[in-house]
TrEMBL record:
Organism: Phytomonospora endophytica
SUPFAM superfamilies named in the record: PLP-dependent transferases, Winged helix' DNA-binding domain
Extent of Basic residues compositional bias: 70-85
Protein name (database record): DNA-binding transcriptional MocR family regulator
Region entry Disordered, spans: 68-87
Keywords noted in UniProt: DNA-binding, Pyridoxal phosphate, Transcription, Transcription regulation
Family: In the C-terminal section; belongs to the class-I pyridoxal-phosphate-dependent aminotransferase family.
Amino acid sequence: MAEQYQPTGSTAAGITADIEAAVRDGKLPPGAPLPPVRRLAADLGLAVATVAAAYRALRQRGVIETAGRHGSHVRHRPPLTHRGPRALPPGVIDLSSGEPDPALLPDLTTALRAVPARPSGYRDAGPCPQLADLARERLAADELPPGAVTFTSGALDAIERGLSVHLSVGDSVAVEDPCWGNLRDLIAALGMHAVPMPVDAEGPTVDGLRAALRQGARAVVVTSRAQNPTGAVVSRERAALLRELLSAHPATFVIEDDHWAELATDPLHPVVGGTGHWLFVRSVSKPYGPDLRLAVATGDEATIARVEGRMRLGAGWVSTLLQHVVLGLWEDPATEHAVARARETYRARREALLAALTARGVRATGHTGLNVWIPVADETAAVTALRDRGYAVSPGAVNRLRSAPGIRVTVGSLVGEEDLELIADTVAGLANPSTSAFR
């Protein structure tokens, strides 16, 4: 905690507001510790219960988290005002963002011609029938169970709406460990609890899912392919075992995220469909561009009806203009070639980095996707050493619940052989991790 900042307030609400303002203004940066409850209560002359209530409210909003004896600290990405991308030192290459390479995204020129001359009004708004039909064809080709189809403003929007219409504050959600950092933060912001499921090369382990269900998880989130950050892919055998286990818990809400979509080289082996309520989400961000805020969402009739109903009370619908752009991309042969080129380029970059690390005795994973996950003994030391050599990477703390330390390297901007060699040399020069790439 910054020395100049001391929480103030005479009530739980006052303390909560003061700490939120400090986080918003940067007085309490991500990861900053908060005073122990009893010490702050003594400093402010308040009852311990008053400070405890303030901390509890901040945890429920996802602003802070508590780690047992390590106390409470500000979350790495609290759900407060976004102040834009973090500034990097001059000359530092950003390998931390998880962003696709802009040079590998398709040209939108042809797709824009599919946009109607006049936008839809309130009466005609909603899922574009042509896009929905084409989405159903693509989903059926991947052997997804038949279900209703709608569109949301990206994958995380679909996941948030799905969780919101099925779960309540205080409920538990089983997530992969390590997992997508945004998902972990979203669950905290919803006032729900993330229950870790260990991940190996074939996805969430069966024992991990079984343990999470025993701990009362009411929902499960699984990544089909290109698991962020490990690159794991759910195999046919693993999918069958997970579905079998979930079928014995029919009230569990299952969400499956296939964000890598058309960039995937591995076939899809769906996990959804064995429970009463399920949601399968496929974003267009990675193949076609993050600014295309659209994801295809399919699921059981009740879930999709609830998601659409909730959308109409708020955002309303995904812009029909945007839907027609995506329709134009899906129907454009040149776009298909561009996606195929991107698929091969990302594969080559991942494999080149993995080969360089392996040659130096460093174990890492990244079978598919945009990221390579490297176990390290000390995340801070690894991140600092790479930054000093001109590369910004992501500390695994934003992804982990109980799994071992690691760093995530995004290959989106990793193009030179010199970069590969220097990164591999730097990691190998640290304490060489001897543990498995998955824990």
